[in-house]
Amino acid sequence: MLINVKNLALEPMDFAFEEEITIPRSGGDVPCKVKVTGTVQRVDRNCVVEGEIAAVLSLNCDKCLSAFEAQLDLNMNEVFSEDVDSEKEFWELSDKTVDLKPAVIADIMLNMPMKAECSDHCKGLCPKCGHNLNEGDCGCDRGYINPQFEKLLTLFKDDDEEV
User: Are residues 83 and 147 in the same domain?
Assistant: First the structure.
């Protein structure tokens, strides 16, 4: 995702990239198909990049462990500078080339869901046998209550209600 800005005049220049990248995440890297479109414009000694990121993330559900794809649509507004200072939030403009890949990866990482779920109604796995409860009930008895916590049930029980 390199843009040569050596001969970039004051007029904005359009760009479009489509690429498969890997997004680092705890628990393993996430494959991602990315489409980036937008414009780059010279402003003083900086280059301003504005555009859109359309990413399709290949994730595994944190509840049921099944594979699914998640769509992520983002707006991108980044500044690339030859004078990178640690206190400023600019990306480095090196050899008159804008490398969008680190900025795209950072934008996707910041907007990825903290908890990957295949759907809002995911039932997860059976704690006894590990069956995916989205595919149907496994028949396990999940009514077991640890005897150490049985007394806590009385805190939530009304006089007329049975637990």
Answer: no
> Do 55 and 86 belong to one domain?
yes
Amino acid identity, residue 156? F
Two structure tokens written together for 98: 């804008």
> End-to-end distance of the chain based on CA atoms, in angstroms?
60
Show the CA angle centred on residue 32, arms to residues 95 and 19, nearest 5°.
45
Report the distance separating Cα 115 and Cα 129, nearest Å.
Answer: 23
The predicted-structure confidence for 84-116, as pLDDT tens digits, reads as follows 665 566 666 676 777 888 888 889 888 888 888
**Looking at the structure, do residues 33 and 86 belong to the same domain, yes or no?**
yes
| Element housing 151 (H / E) | none
Whole-model pTM above 0.85? no
Residues 59 and 79 in one domain: yes
Residues 15 and 94 in one domain: yes
Q: How many residues does the chain have?
A: 163
Q: How far is CA 63 from the centre of its chain?
A: 17
For residue 97, give the nearest of 49, 31, 132, 27 by alpha carbon.
49
Q: Sort strands 67-81 and 91-92 into parallel, antiparallel or unpaired.
A: parallel
